[in-house]
Amino acid sequence: MKSISVFGGNGFLGRAICKEAIQRGWTVNSVSRSGKPVQSNEPWVEKVNWVKGDVFQPKTYESVLKTSDAVVHSLGLIWENQDYKKLINLESSGASNPLKTLAQAFQVFTSSKGSNPMEKEVFNTYDGLNHQSAIVLAEAVAENLSDEWPKSFPFVYISADFKSPSPAEYLKSKQITEIELYEMQPQLRPIFMRPGFMYDENNPRNMRHDVKKILELIGKIDTKNLIGLPQTVSIQKVARSILDHVAEQGFVGPVNMDQMQ
Ligand SMILES: NC(=O)c1ccc[n+]([C@@H]2O[C@H](COP(=O)([O-])OP(=O)(O)OC[C@H]3O[C@@H](n4cnc5c(N)ncnc54)[C@H](OP(=O)(O)O)[C@@H]3O)[C@@H](O)[C@H]2O)c1
């Protein structure tokens, strides 16, 4: 049996990774500041070891690293103004009415304040959460490797589809992190997941599902993607792909969208 630790395991993608790993019979730890997710009574949730820890403070999770065979870093920001999380996690008015959801989305965007640079902290910037947190974690993993560990240690980083339209600083933070993690071989075996826009295939009432439908609708008209819209992929597919690549001895480097479908 394998043991995996998912940092951000109670987040949107993180939960799907934890659930998939439990279904495969793996031992699963989730590390995040709030620990166990509230409002969840699915049976797999009880099988996860929910640890409260801060990625920037390795002392809070070192014991978990010592018993892991693989680590996933699944935390980050797409926009530094975190109002977007409130927006994309909205429950929509129904999968059949994506336009009504768009109107709701517009309301959230127009009512939200821009990010105040004075309020920026390491935990809410691209460089802090997308880049530095991954390096802090990777260094903690490397320091805690047992002498008996025979091979490179699988370290999964959730990067981004560089072809998707995204803020330049966001993509830059992902790119820099990939480069620095790549240089941590052979101690680590870095795996870079590069998903486009992610949605939950089991939750059609979520705003992300509506956005996916709209993107696919436009894609039917703009078949050559001249507009340059992001490709979509479900968190379930990304989760399966992560665990497949962790299990594939010797796999290292990027996993692009076509490899996740
Ligand atoms: N969503 C997309 O469509 C998409 C597309 C491409 C790439 N990505 C990337 O995928 C990754 C996951 O995205 P997501 O949408 O699943 O994120 P999310 O739902 O916001 O989850 C973030 C997780 O990180 C944890 N976290 C935040 N700060 C932490 C800290 N200091 N220490 C420990 N845990 C911390 C949060 O839990 P606590 O608050 O409890 O700490 C939460 O579990 C990100 O790197 C993102 O850039 C997302």
From TrEMBL:
This is NAD-dependent epimerase/dehydratase domain-containing protein. GO terms for molecular function: protein-containing complex binding. One of its GO terms (cellular component) is mitochondrion. It comes from Kuraishia capsulata CBS 1993. The lineage of its organism: Eukaryota, Fungi, Dikarya, Ascomycota, Saccharomycotina. PANTHER family: MIOREX COMPLEX COMPONENT 2 (PTHR12126:SF16), NADH-UBIQUINONE OXIDOREDUCTASE 39 KDA SUBUNIT-RELATED (PTHR12126). Residues 5-74 form the NAD-dependent epimerase/dehydratase domain. SUPFAM superfamilies: NAD(P)-binding Rossmann-fold domains. It comes from the Eukaryota.
